[in-house]
Amino acid sequence: MATCETCGNDYDKPIHVTKNGTSHTYDSFECAIHALAPTCANCGIRIVGHGMEKDGTYFCCDHCAEHKGVTGLRDRL
Fold this sequence. Notes:
The protein has 77 residues and is an alpha+beta fold. It has helices spanning 29-36, 62-67, and strands spanning 2-3, 10-11, 15-19, 22-26, 52-54, 57-59.
């Protein structure tokens, strides 16, 4: 059994994720997303898809980026 880093559940079918050379253990994708997915700098939603990034700041979409004054990003060309 392995203990989930997010919720502490001891689970017999854990998910192991390696990020930047560090291994992590979770009991579900939900817990992995909660722990690893970046959040939008404007609305705070977890970015599960591609998202957008400008100078190390992450946004879920160009609308949120523009709301924070970031221009030139487009999620559709």
